């Protein structure tokens, strides 16, 4: 199966997304995800169906598949064929014709010629044509696809008012039938509402847009002429290839992920990690595309372009998380799918009850049913979740927190305990050799230790290798890493060697106070002690979690005394030490059955445990973002962002709940108010537009709200 990502313009509500979703599934595509806010559509397809066919199908539904390289043409693809760029332009055009009609309706204003029904008809026709070009087309296409959208309500309401007025004009009794201004104000004000909604939804994507913008910068590419003289010329970063050489000067953006070949610099990686303190980079260090050189100049070689860069991976993760629906959205979706037919039924019922049972004139009854159509707002229910999720994910990404799916955002509200790995999570993972003792020649001992630990991925082993660099290492006949225990090898003469924890050395010594024991032919030949520093922010993070009544647990493979010492210093509730990866997995499984549990680890040797927890949180090196099995990634070992991640999860959920409450309450109150005649269609059209803006503003508040 091939995964396809498309950018689709013209989706304005959940029903649009449902229409596209339904079409893609009917074509037999798998894993379909549609996000109407960002316009991101993804699915998996096999070779039997071409992408062109799918794109054509989406375009035929009244939407537009946008291609990256095509640039943005002036015409907006909201489904209209007239040359308007956006809803604001449509609003101003309609307003020119609507204003005189509304002016005439004001008390004390009597402009005689505006009383003429033919003048009113002439003013209404342009507005009605522009309205139907957009609402009418969209309504017909949505009906055709079997999922009526909110434009059906607008088209029905304005057409009823226009048709009724026109009928009055034809039968010669215009004064009793004049609702031309209702048709005009409905269309005009809904355009205004749509524009406000578009503008406010656009803001919910702001954080992602800033990330995306920094992907495209100018780069100084280095090339050599035939005399091997260095030439520098400017190209767009998107034109670079892996292996190209670039010069990056003080104050410039790093154009693509690259590796320093010459020079040193202080680099601000805030765009990726939210951390504005510059990081020192020297030869062989990795630079992340989009970061900024605050001082220094370097020459670097491009290591990744396009989809493979760290920034692209981050954007991809956030977009995928946005298209995922958190559980709370499913109810709103079900209601959205039947909302329009329900409202049309209520409007017809309003018309019938007012006319036949409440002794209202047909005109009054019609006005009330039009008000019902115009004021009801399926958009609000569809917008409630995606708007909040977009802002929550955006704020998180700006602070170096990546959620891989929207579900994790919602689950965070229930977390009752947090399990921490020790090495590399609560501690820096940077070890120093503190002490060692050898029963044999010191040079030989170091050589054996270096040659063994070279084959291990464990941070303790890496620190030994870094400190004891040996030129003539031993060439082993065989070597293997025994998970959770150590490294076992055999040299060419047949001697057995082992470097590992006390559980290996327990039969040779009673002294269990050291980190690494080296054994040769079943004889202990020495031990090494390493020290690991505790992260400066760890204490504060633990204290904050405890203040929120979240239980903290330290789960480590390290020895009991060492783990207990760290636990006591940080004030951790429970310490479980000397665990193999398998035992860690069992422990996490047991914790999650007791209460929802988050596990925080460095993502390398904790992968299975992270996957097993209710929510796995990985502390990732910024340059290898998408590799973990965790649902949440804290970039650049940002343990200090852990409370922010939990807080954002909780508050995004609260925002969604608030949005859904407002959306449902609004419709439950507004529809009966309109049906009983307390609201004119004009006012209804205005209030309907504002209801969406209220949701967008409530969601945007999540950007500034104190969540920790």
CATH architecture assignment of the domain at 390-426 and 534-650: 3-Layer(aba) Sandwich
The rough form would be described as: elongated
Q: Provide a count of the helices.
A: 24
Question: Low-confidence stretches at least 5 residues in length (pLDDT < 50)?
Answer: 71-75
The gyration radius over C-alpha positions equals 33 Å
Mean pLDDT across every amino acid position: 84
- CATH superfamily (homologous) name of the domain at 390-426 and 534-650: HAD superfamily/HAD-like
How far apart the termini lie comes to 42 Å
| Fraction in beta strands | 15-25%
- At CATH level 3, the topology of the domain at 390-426 and 534-650 is Rossmann fold
Helix proportion range: 40-55%
- Which structural class should the secondary elements be placed in? alpha+beta
The counted number of beta strands is 24
Question: What composes the largest sheet?
Answer: 7 strands, antiparallel
Explain the overall architecture:
- With 708 residues, this protein is an alpha+beta fold.
- Among the domains are: 2-70, 2-Layer Sandwich (Alpha-Beta Plaits), CATH 3.30.70.100; 216-308, Calcium-transporting ATPase, cytoplasmic transduction domain A, CATH 2.70.150.10; 390-426 and 534-650, HAD superfamily/HAD-like (Rossmann fold, 3-Layer(aba) Sandwich), CATH 3.40.50; 428-533, Calcium-transporting ATPase, cytoplasmic domain N.
- The chain is 48% helix and 21% strand.
- The chain is built from 24 helices and 24 strands.
- Helix 4 (117-145) runs antiparallel to helix 5 (150-171) and helix 5 (150-171) runs antiparallel to helix 12.
- 48% of the residues are buried.
